[in-house]
Design goal:
With 597 residues, the chain is an alpha/beta fold. It is built from 20 helices and seven strands. Helix 5 packs antiparallel against helix 19 (564-576), helix 11 (410-422) runs antiparallel to helix 12 (427-449) and helix 11 (410-422) runs antiparallel to helix 15.
Length: 597
């Protein structure tokens, strides 16, 4: 009501402003006295009527405002109920979606359980045993308690008789070993003798019983730091060891782990191929509270020093006139919100017993290998045919690596003809494989005889070798001249491969130092592929680069025939002690120093 009155007053004021400048009209001018009295009476009656109308309108407005207030309260109540209903509907939707997800999960578990209920489809079951089991169950189902329904066909009543009637086969003792290895541990055993004075009787015999124990302790060490101030100097923190305690804080730089602990987690991840998740679970089971990211960061701290060692190993591997083998393998790396197929390369120098893994942002382009090799003056590069064609092409031969011999692995060539013979059904492919295997057999003979490079070159240049080479070339030309319409795809690929890389395949015949295949690089990279299959993917480019660094060191140590565990431990201890002479910390020199100690 007050609001409406305010609106009316405002409207009245506006109307009065419109007539403010007008002069008022005198309606009684020129009237007689009796006319004026009647006009005044008329105005009074009219004013009374207007007052009654105004009062009635005010009452109507009051009723209207009361109804509006009531309707407003009802609308407020309706809005409140609507909001409550919307909240309930939202909660019900959330519960329904949660129930749908749970039902879907349970259905997947049920489907998997039903699938595995009777074993894997690939399992082979003995048909006789299967029939017997089926018959036994049928006999149980058909038996109703009477003698007529009792059947025992599935029971072999003559089993013992048949076994006795069968002649016993004599044991073959021709492959029996001369002796058997007994259990034992390197080093002197710890003996725990009995206190004979406690024996309550006469001693008849004494015997040592061997028991093997394995104790692994995960401990937390706390070093008391003292905040002190010397006269005239600023306060500082320090550790002052007590007698019988460590003289220094045994913490690897940038971590809260000892060098031995860092050695253990590096060995678990990159040698035993344990995933970070399993490593974290293992430490958690032993009572340690730590995150997987922390373990990753600790290994990254160790990688910083191993990178310096890898730089030294790279300079050794790419020395002038070196013979190297290279290969690459794929890996899956997480790139922000998706996964990308990337590649890790390996380069192996057999003479220097050095293996270098490099990631280079996961690229498989030609620049990866050329940028890594830089200005190295290599004697030869061995790879498979694909890498030789894509990454060591004619452009490289005419550029910085024009004096480098480019080799192609003969094992890959032989595998193509074996595939053509087995899957393509090409009989002539077996002849190619037989001729190629002859070269491998001769190389094995040279290895067993321990020939020098000069003697090996002389044998490779022998008349017998040339005869086999001519026979292989003649067979190739003969097969290529034939109609290829009915030739299998595998056989066509093998023939084209041999023709394309003939020079690279048999480049080893011109030098006694060159290898015949790329198996060395493939064996070295196999450890990385095993870890790839276990961990499924790397979390980032940094994870792939860290794997390349650690595997470079591990691969080099294995080529030296040394213990990876001992090398990693010795390296981290040297870094902890402030030793930074990486040239003298390469696997060969550390192993030599350890053996001399």
């Amino acid at each position: 009501m007050i609001e409406l009155q305010h609106i009316i007053d405002s409207k009245r004021e506006l109307l009065s402003r419109e007539t403010y400048s007008r002069n008022p009209i005198n309606y009684s001018e020129g009237m007689a006295d009796d006319q004026k009295d009647r006009f005044i009476q008329y105005l009074a009656e009219q004013h009374q009527e207007d007052e009654l109308t105004k009062r009635a309108m005010e009452l109507v407005l009051e009723d209207f405002m009361a109804q509006m207030k009531e309707l407003k309260e009802q609308m407020t109540s309706i809005h409140s109920k609507q909001s409550d209903l919307e909240n309930q509907l939202s909660e019900e939707r959330k519960l329904r979606k949660s129930a749908e997800r749970k039902a879907k999960s349970l259905q997947e578990k049920l489907d998997f359980a039903n699938q595995e209920h009777f074993g894997d489809r690939r399992q082979r079951i003995n048909s006789k045993a299967k029939k017997s089991a089926s018959d036994r169950q049928k006999e149980k189902d058909d038996y109703d308690g009477t003698d007529d329904t009792l059947r025992t066909d599935s029971v072999d009543n003559n089993e013992s008789l048949n076994e006795a009637a069968l002649p016993r086969k004599e044991r073959d003792l021709s492959n029996r070993p001369d002796g058997y290895k007994t259990m034992g541990v390197a080093g002197e055993p710890i003996e725990h003798p009995s206190d004979l004075s406690k024996v309550p009787g006469r001693i008849i015999e004494r015997r040592m019983v061997r028991v093997f124990s394995f104790r692994t302790f995960l401990t937390e060490e706390c070093f008391e730091m003292v905040h002190y101030a010397e006269p005239g100097k600023k306060p500082k923190w320090g550790y002052f060891p007590s007698e019988g305690h460590p003289q220094v804080i045994t913490k690897f730089e940038g971590t809260k782990a000892t060098p031995e602990f860092l050695q253990a987690i590096a060995y678990e991840v990159y040698v035993k191929n344990v995933t970070f998740g399993h490593l974290h679970q293992w430490l958690t089971d032993m009572g340690m509270t730590i995150s997987r990211n922390t373990l990753h960061n600790w290994l990254k701290k160790g990688k910083k020093y191993l990178d310096e060692l890898v730089r030294v190993l790279k300079s050794v591997a790419l020395e002038k006139d070196s013979i190297v083998n290279c290969d690459e393998t794929w890996c899956k790396v997480r790139k922000y919100d998706h996964y990308k197929k990337c590649y890790i390369w390996v380069l192996v120098n057999k003479a220097q017993k050095t293996a270098i893994f490099f990631y280079e942002n996961g690229s498989r382009g030609r620049d990866v290998l050329t940028d890594f090799l830089g200005d190295a003056e290599l004697k030869s590069i061995m790879s498979d045919g694909y890498n030789a064609y894509v990454f060591i092409g004619d452009e490289l031969k005419s550029a910085q690596f024009k004096d480098t011999i480019h080799q192609v692995c003969m094992s890959h060539m032989n595998n193509k003809f074996v595939k053509a013979a087995n899957q393509g059904g090409e009989a002539v492919a077996e002849c190619f494989s037989k001729l190629l295997k002859w070269f491998f057999s001769k190389e094995h003979i040279y290895d067993e005889a321990g020939l020098t490079p000069e003697e090996r070159l002389r044998e490779r240049q022998s008349l017998e070798t040339k005869e086999h080479l001519i026979e292989l070339r003649s067979l190739l030309e003969s097969e290529l001249s034939k109609n290829s319409e009915f030739r299998s795809q595998y056989y066509t690929e093998a023939l084209n491969y041999l023709k394309k890389f003939w020079k690279e395949l048999f480049a080893f015949l011109g030098d006694g130092d060159l290898p015949i295949d790329n198996n060395l690089a493939e064996r070295t990279i196999r450890k990385l592929t095993t870890q790839r299959n276990n961990s499924l993917h790397y979390g980032s480019d940094a994870g792939a680069e860290m794997a390349a660094t650690y595997h470079s060191v591990i691969g080099t140590v294995k080529l030296h025939g040394s213990s990876v565990w001992n090398f990693i431990g010795t390296f981290f201890k040297n870094i902890f002690n402030g030793y930074r002479d990486y040239v003298n910390m390469v696997p060969g020199k550390i192993t030599l120093a350890t053996s001399q100690c």
